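Below is how a single chain appears once it has passed through the pipeline. First comes the sequence as given, then the structure the pipeline wrote out for it. We keep one example in the README because the format questions we get most often are answered faster by looking than by reading.
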Amino acid sequence: MNDRATTRTRPPAPPPQAAPSAPPAPAPAKAPPLPRMRRRLDLATIIGLSSGLLLVLGALFMGGGGVGSFVDIPSVLIVLGGTAAITTISFTWPDMRAAMRALSSTMVANTPDPRAAAQTALSLAEFARRSGPLGLQPLVKSTKAWPVLSKAVELIVDGLPADDAERILRTEIEANLARARTASAVMRRAAEVAPAMGLIGTLVGLVQMLGNLSDPSTVGPAMAVALITTFYGAILGSMVFSPIAAKIDRNAEREALVDGLYLLAAGSVARQENPRRLEVMINTVLPPELRVTAYEQ
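Resulting structure:
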């Protein structure tokens, strides 16, 4: 038998089938936006303080006596130097330095807006829900400008329980408030001491005036100089130190409100809660005009 006849014809091999394509990898979640550190002049403080002083200067000019008659270097030294010395006695040197830093911060507003902070807290919760808590690790360094927010992100990444994270953040917020209260207490103490130092300067001037009663022509000018120190003390106490103390307290309360939002976000992420619930908790803290509606309809 012929070998060719016995050889069976093999059917052509089927074309290779393409391997099933793998499903596309999900796009990485976009990092949440961080609040902007807006270092801008606090116009309320600057306009209020400058307008008050300008009104006093305008009254001096309209009085006809001129500004020069209200300038007395010894009186300035008694009021400013005495106020600084007595206030320093009442506190420690670190407290005085903290008060000076708080004084400069009243001129420059750098606290984020509570609404922007609330949106940041919700974005962090949504990002952690999609990418996991470890996905927030790159944000630890980029949030250093906001210490409580940076600490909250760090605690979430470390996987601390919600109760522990909230306790740590609450302690830090209370420490910040305590430092702000100390700074405002320094300013309030200065507001109390300045008028007293003005009165002391007036008494010194009166004693000097009474020692020169033999020359009646010097009584009037000496009396005017003696009263200038009381004027300086009243200006510093009522128009400078007391309003600045109130502004320090107000800024501290605003910062505590913002930090409290980050505390709520840290606890919510640690408990793996739905960001919608976090929005409800945030809106119970914010004033009605600042509430957010990212999820609520």
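Residues 1-7, 18-28 have pLDDT under 50 and may be disordered.

See the next section for the split statistics.
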